[in-house]
Amino acid sequence: MTVANGEVTREVPVMPGGQRVLGSPYALNRDAQLHHDPGRFEPDRWATDYSRSDMRAAFFPFGQGIRNCIGEGFAWTESTLLLSAVAARWQLRLADGATVHPVVSSTLVPSELPIIVTRRR
Question: pTM of the prediction?
Answer without folding.
Answer: 0.55
